[in-house]
Amino acid sequence: MITGDMSITEIVEKYPKTADILLSYGMHCFGCMAARFENLEQGALAHGIDVPRLLKDLNEAIKN
Known about the structure:
Organism: Desulfosporosinus acididurans
InterPro entries: CHP03980_redox-disulphide, DUF1858, ScdA-like_N_sf
Oligomer: single chain
Pfam families: DUF1858
Domain DUF1858: 2-54
Protein name: DUF1858 domain-containing protein
């Protein structure tokens, strides 16, 4: 399960298919340095993204 306190890099490394979802939300940062120390919630909030909705979509993607 993906949570808001996981790092963006950790999520993409563990679940590669989440990269497309992050991109669709405008989060192109999983390749930048901030992605290594910034957690998903921090990154999403910095981009004005609805965190619960993002988490729902990411977790749905890894179920399949």
